[in-house]
């Protein structure tokens, strides 16, 4: 019997449901073309449901999600709901409860896509950020004292455990080991790539100021690298310098690993150099459990319902979902379709300026994946 996957779809807020629908279209086309089946179940978590019912997320949601092979998420964030309520109550809560301890964010410039970084092309902008996804400033610990007075003190707690650091680092080292990206501009040829001696992992931290947390990261990084991944070249950047290099020399990077907060920030910069939020996808991954894939941009409420938003980030999230499920060829076919479309079809990646509607772009992806010429 053909392999079959159950996928939970949380369209969410704003343009989230529109882009998720196009990703579903691509997944169905890939399933047909590559001989597996996908079953979808939709969940209405998001701002509208919250405003109607007063409930952000049912307590049963994480258990419900555990029944699925993967989750596809559109976007969370509603203009009529105070910032933080939905983000913490839905997105972060699912990440934590499902223990999706990796946030995998590829930064890849597709052909034909304009980057604001002068003189760089698809060969130079192609790396992957492994963001730890459950600890750091995101752990939800902190306090106010004398709130509302002139003497108010607000203390957010950033916290890392050896276990949390170690599992993120091990994932990143494995990822670097398996990535085997030819980087010819560095003089690395295919034979070296095949031999697996080309992987490079950059730890991004702030060891000069955050002398507790990034000391722990750096020690663990070197211990694990030396003991178990001697073939992976280890590199270290302070986070501020990393931002500089993303713009100046993005070709230096292969795989990066960092804490939750820095990872959040540098991947928005990464999204910009790869052409914007219209194309940037990510995966909240629990390698031993259920993972959730999403376009990393927001809900773009002002474009809601106009059929103008770019669905390619959600489509790429769908490709990552298939890759994680082990459907590598199907995932690659979606990526190839996206690349074909950015190179040959779209005028721009920006909402309303693609030269096509949201649904037309989704149809082109599905046709290409299904072997029809768009
Ligand atoms: C992201 C977002 C979230 C984060 C917000 C919406 C909670 O910015 O996925 O990068 O900070 O992780
Ligand atoms: Mn972010």
Count of β-strands: 12
Task: Kindly report the spatial arrangement of strands forming the biggest sheet.
Answer: 2-1-3-12-11-4-5-10-8-9
In this entry the ligands are:
3-isopropylmalic acid, manganese (II) ion
Q: Report the biggest beta sheet as strand number plus sense, adding barrel if it closes.
A: 10 strands, mixed
Rg, rounded, reads 21 Å
The percent range for helix content is: 40-55%
Distance between the termini: 31 Å
Q: Encode the helix/strand succession as letters.
A: EHEHHEHEEEEHHEHEHEHEEHHH
The share of residues in extended strands comes to 15-25%
Polypeptide structure, described:
There is one protein chain. The protein is an alpha/beta fold and 374 residues long. Helices cover 40% and strands 19% of the residues. It has helices at 16-34, 47-53, 61-65, 85-97, 162-179, 190-194, 213-228, 239-248, 260-273, 312-325, 328-344, 358-369, and strands at residues 4-12, 37-43, 70-75, 102-108, 126-132, 142-145, 153-156, 200-205, 233-238, 255-258, 281-285, 291-295. The longest helix is centred in the first third of the chain and has 19 residues, at 16-34. It is globular and about 55 Å long. Bound molecules: 3-isopropylmalic acid and manganese (II) ion. Manganese (II) ion binds at residues 264, 268.
Can you summarize this structure?
The protein is α/β, with parallel strands linked by helices and 374 residues long. The protein has helices at residues 16-34, 47-53, 61-65, 85-97, 162-179, 190-194, 213-228, 239-248, 260-273, 312-325, 328-344, 358-369, and strands at residues 4-12, 37-43, 70-75, 102-108, 126-132, 142-145, 153-156, 200-205, 233-238, 255-258, 281-285, 291-295. The chain is built from 12 helices and 12 strands.
């Amino acid at each position: 019997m053909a392999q079959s996957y159950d996928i939970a779809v949380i369209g969410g807020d704003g343009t989230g449901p529109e882009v998720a629908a196009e990703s579903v279209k691509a997944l169905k086309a890939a399933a047909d073309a590559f001989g597996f089946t996908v079953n979808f179940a939709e969940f209405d978590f998001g701002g509208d449901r919250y405003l109607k019912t007063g409930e952000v997320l049912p307590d049963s949601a994480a258990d419900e999600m555990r029944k699925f092979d993967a989750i596809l998420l559109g976007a969370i964030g509603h203009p009529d709901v105070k910032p933080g309520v939905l983000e913490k109550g839905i997105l972060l809560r699912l990440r934590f409860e499902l223990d999706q301890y990796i946030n995998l964010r590829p930064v890849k410039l597709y052909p034909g896509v304009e980057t604001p970084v002068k003189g760089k092309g698809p060969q130079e902008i192609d790396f992957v950020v492994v963001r730890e996804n459950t600890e750091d400033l995101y752990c939800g610990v902190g306090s106010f004292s004398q709130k509302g007075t002139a003497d108010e003190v607000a203390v957010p707690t950033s916290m890392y455990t050896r276990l949390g650091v170690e599992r993120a680092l091990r994932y990143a080292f494995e990822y670097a080991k398996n990535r085997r990206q030819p980087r010819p501009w560095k003089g690395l040829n295919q034979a070296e790539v095949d031999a697996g001696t080309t992987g490079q992992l950059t730890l991004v931290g702030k060891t000069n100021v955050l002398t507790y947390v990034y000391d722990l990261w750096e020690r663990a990084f070197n211990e694990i690298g030396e003991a178990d991944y001697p073939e992976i070249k280890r590199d270290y950047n302070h986070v501020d310098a990393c931002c500089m290099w993303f713009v100046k020399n993005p070709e230096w990077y292969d795989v990066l690993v960092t804490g939750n907060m820095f990872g959040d920030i540098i991947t928005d910069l990464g999204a910009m150099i790869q052409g914007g939020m219209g194309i940037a996808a990510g995966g909240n991954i629990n390698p031993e459990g259920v993972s959730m894939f999403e376009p990393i941009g927001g809900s773009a409420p002002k474009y809601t319902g106009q059929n103008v938003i770019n669905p390619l980030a959600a489509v790429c999230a769908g490709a990552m979902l298939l890759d994680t499920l082990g459907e590598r060829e199907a995932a690659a076919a979606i990526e190839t379709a996206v690349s074909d479309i950015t190179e040959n079809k779209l005028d721009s990646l920006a909402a309303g300026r693609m030269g096509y509607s949201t649904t037309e772009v989704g149809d082109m992806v599905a046709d290409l994946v299904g072997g029809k010429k768009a």
